[in-house]
Design goal:
Blueprint (H helix, E strand, L loop, with lengths): L7 E7 L4 E5 L3 E6 L13 E7 L2 E6 L1 H4 L12 E6 L9 E6 L4 E5 L4 E5 L9 E7 L5 E3 L1 H11 L4
């Protein structure tokens, strides 16, 4: 079997104090930040909706979903548009605030190892933290993040 068959194109997504790593196929697009229209009563981590391709795109702060402060908006802030995979979101997509452009990486079992499954709140949308050469990115639980978003807000 070729080594390419055992590799996965992934994106390292920069957060304020961390990084996420996700399969490239989960991401539809990375767009410039525009201020979301906020919903009344929404949690701090649910930033509101932005217009994207003629539809309302719900945008969240991953840091906020972990119970941390929502990061300040800078000139490097972007929105990573994810495909919704559970069918719980009417739009079929949701956005996550990022602090810069995601970096494309190829990963395989030789460079990616489980580091820990602890260190964040129990209800947080995180599967685990991995060790990837000299980095320790989080693998998000995108289905849980979608469910949180659908349950709490903008989409109900």
């Amino acid at each position: 079997m070729s080594s390419e068959a055992n590799e996965l194109y992934s994106l390292l997504i920069p957060l304020a104090e961390d990084r996420l790593i996700v399969p490239r196929a989960c991401v539809a697009e990375v767009v410039r930040f525009s201020p979301p229209e906020q919903e009344d009563g929404a949690y701090d981590w649910m930033l509101g909706n932005v217009s994207w391709n003629g539809r309302a795109l719900p945008v969240v702060s991953f840091e906020g979903a972990l119970g941390k402060d929502v990061p300040a908006i800078t000139g490097r802030t972007r929105i990573v548009v994810f495909y919704a995979s559970t069918g719980n979101l009417k739009t079929g997509y949701f956005g996550v605030l990022t602090q810069g452009f995601p970096q494309l990486v190829r990963v395989n079992k030789d460079v990616l190892q489980l580091h820990t499954t602890e260190g964040w709140p129990q209800d947080a949308p995180v599967l685990c933290r991995v060790k990837m050469i000299n980095e320790f990115p989080l693998i998000p639980n995108l289905e849980k993040l979608e469910a949180m978003l659908a349950r709490e807000s903008l989409q109900a």
